[in-house]
Each structure stands twice: as structure tokens, then as C-alpha cells.
Amino acid sequence: MLIRNTAVGDRECDVRIADGVVTDVVELTGGDAVRLAPRSEEDVLDGGRVTPPFAEPHVHLDAALLGRRAPNRSGTLREGIANWSALRASLTEEDIRERALATAQMYVDTGTLSIRTHVDTGCEVAVQTLLDLKPVLAERGVQLQVVAFPQEGILRAPGRREQWERAVALGCDAVGGIPHFERTTEEGWRSVRIAFDLAEENGRQLDFHCDETDDPGSRNLEVVCAEAIDRGFSGRVVCGHCTALHSYPNPYAAKICELVATAGVQVVANPLDNVVLQGRYDSYPRRRGLTRIDELWAAGAHVGIGHDSVMDPWYRLGTGNLLDAASMAIHLGHLTSEDAMRRVFRTLHHENHLPFGTPPEIFAGESAPILWWDEPDEIEILRLRPRPRVIS
User: Fold this and answer.
1) Which domains does the chain show, CATH number per domain?
2) DSSP at 44
3) Per-residue model confidence (pLDDT) at position 47
4) Which one, of 9, 19, 352, lies nearest residue 1 by Cα?
5) SS3 letters for 306-332?
6) List of the chain residues with pLDDT < 50
7) Which has the least CB within 10 A, 112, 153, 237, 313?
8) DSSP state, residue 1
9) Is 212 a catalytic residue?
């Protein structure tokens, strides 16, 4: 495949892909640039934009596509958890596998080839099924990571900590947690430290559902950051949601944004779910339920954008298209400057890859696949939300 006169970042280039590798990237700078000539039987595309594939840092494949079975009538986080808990015991390996593969295909069709899924450790059949899907999806060109996520906490009831530890032992890639859902503030903080202990013992990353609440008194993120600093976990910790940050007093929020950057913790915003689930205790005006993306950026922190739910007991909508989540982030976060919109788009193929390792780039010698968009302008891609062509 030869792609001529295409946008690569801020450059105009000719790009050639052969045998699963980007073999040539030639920048077209003025009249002296040497264009790549088509070879015999080589497909040629003109214009558009080339990017690395997208990455999904936060989704729940075990619960995907269950929204019809257990509709969330109140729209609250707590009812979503209750509905999921009611369904969990009846799930079978075949059901989980079928729904997870169908949802993964939605992602593939819209350009996402790396997926990090949380799995409820209260359902060992779900844990094992998603772990078993890792090689299956790898054969289809999709990288899957699995987070051992204790949906109802590890200290709220007997046996939950043991289930969680067993899921990590089975081979989950990251240790999860949900400190704001534990019974007390102190138990939430304790659960954070237990999670770090488990990650250290097993050589795993950490990925918390953290402060997914409108309560400005929910202060788990600072504990996560302090532990990451003290234990040398920079670059190995993700905190999803962090919606309490939206409601913190501004001086405290400024401190936390700086602390997140110092700790090397990545915050993953999930705008589709959180605009629906948050603000349910408000009359008017209702809070938007989105973490402070712009202020985290300004502090130098890494921010990712996740889809989170795809037609599940928390969020009945969803398409598995990360451009939808990006569009919602732009609207909710007032990220409508030209620079901010372009940064949101690039988050999907850059910062979203951080949980998986070094973000891919478009350069000679880099492995394919890559995405080709028939629209060169990143803002227009966000507006129109077209499907890319995956080139390998």
C-alpha cells in the first residue's frame, strides 16, 4: 500500500506499508521533495490522514451488551452495580465470550486495536473467560489487557479479597480497586495500600476506579498518588473517572492536579458514562461529572479517554467508537479551542496507549497496522466520526 500526500501529525508525507511494516515515510517539503513512486500491483491511496491505531484504556467487556437484560431505570451508579450483581451469578462462559468478542469487533471496526478491560473478580468464570480471549484476540490483531477489578470492594464482605487475589494469580495484567466504594474512608485508603502490596508482590500494574462520585470529600486520589511516589510506581498506575475532582474546592483541586503529575499517575476520563451517572443527587444546576481534563493537562499530567460501558447495566447506549467518547469530552470539558480539540483526538492514539507501553508512532521501521482516514483534518474527523481503514 502506498498512501500519497497524506497528513502525518503536522506534516504532509508519502507513506508506504509492505509486509506489515511502515517501510518509508517521506516528508513533502517544497518542490525538492522526492515523491514515492507506485510499484506494480501496489494499491495507492491519496490524501487523508494516517495515524496509529486507537487504544481503549477503560472498558468492561464482561458486562457489555447486558443493558437490555437489566435496564438502569434511575440512571445511577449504585443501581448499575446492583443490576450487574443480580446478573453476575447466571453468566456463562459462552455468553461472556460471545458478548466480549462482539464488543471487541465494534472497537476494531472503528480503529481500536488495543483494549484494556476490567473484569469483576466476583465472577471467576468472567475472569477466566476474558483471560482465555487474550490469545484469540491476538490472532485477530487485537491486544487485550485484563484488570482484576473488585466491583464491590475487597473489604465490604468476607471472601471478596480472596476472589480478587485469586484473579491476579490467574494472570490478570493489572490490579484494580474501588476505594470510594469501601465502607469507610479509612477502609478505602487501606484498600489502596493493599492493592499496591498485591501489585508489588506480583509485578503488576495498578488501575483504580477512583473517586467516581460527586462527593468533594472523597479523597482517594491523593492517597494513590502518595503511594505511587513512595513506592516508585510512576508510569504504572491508572486512575479512572476521578469525578470528585470536578467538585473539589479549587485550591485543593490545584494541589491534586500537581500531585497527579508528580506521581506519574494517568487519569482516564470516561465522559459518556460519567455525564449520565454523575449529578444524580443534584437538582438544577446539575454537575457534568467529568474530571478536570484541562487543569490536569496544564499541570503536566497524562490524561486518557475511555468509552467505559458499551450497552451495559450502567450505560444503555454506546457503540465502541472512541470518537464518541472524545466528542463528549470536548463538549463537557469546554475543550473547543482548535488546539484542545486536536489534543483530544491525538489522545486516542497516543496517551491512550500508555497503559500498554510506549505509544506507537508513524515512522520507517514501525510495525503496521496503521489507520487511514479519508479526511485530513483531525477536527473534521471528530465532527464527522467516520470509520477509518485499517492497513496492515
Assistant:
1) 2-52+361-391 (2.30.40.10), 54-356 (3.20.20.140)
2) E
3) 95
4) 19
5) CCECCCCCCCCCCCCCHHHHHHHHHHH
6) none
7) 153
8) -
9) yes
Q: Are 355 and 238 in contact (CB under 8 A)?
A: yes
Closest by CA to 362, choosing from 37, 11, 1, is 11
Strand duo 21-27 + 11-18: pairing: antiparallel
pTM: 0.96
Among all chains, which residue has been given the C-alpha cell 483526538?
345
For 346, the grid coordinates are 491525538
Cell of 190: 487501606
Question: pLDDT of 165-211, one tens digit each?
Answer: 999 999 999 999 999 999 999 999 999 999 999 999 999 999 999 99
- pLDDT at position 355 is 98
Among the listed residues 272, 261, 266, the one whose alpha carbon sits nearest the alpha carbon of residue 242? 266
Burial of 41 (0-12, 13-18, 19+ CB in 10 A): exposed
The secondary structure of 54-106 as a DSSP string is: EEEEEE-TTTTT-TTTS--SS--HHHHHHHHHHHHTT--HHHHHHHHHHHHHH
Task: Write down the pLDDT at residue 135.
Answer: 98
Q: Measured between alpha carbons, how far is 142 from 335 in angstroms, rounded to an integer?
A: 30
d(CA 276, CA 289): 8
Distances (CA, A) of 234 to 198, 242, 262, 296: 16, 18, 8, 16
Q: Which residue in the block uniquely carries the three cell numbers 492497513?
A: 391
Q: Which residue in the block uniquely carries the three cell numbers 454506546?
A: 318
Residue 40: the pLDDT is: 85
pLDDT tens string 295-337? 999 999 999 999 999 999 999 999 999 999 999 999 999 999 9
Distances (CA, A) of 25 to 22, 62, 358, 364: 8, 40, 20, 6
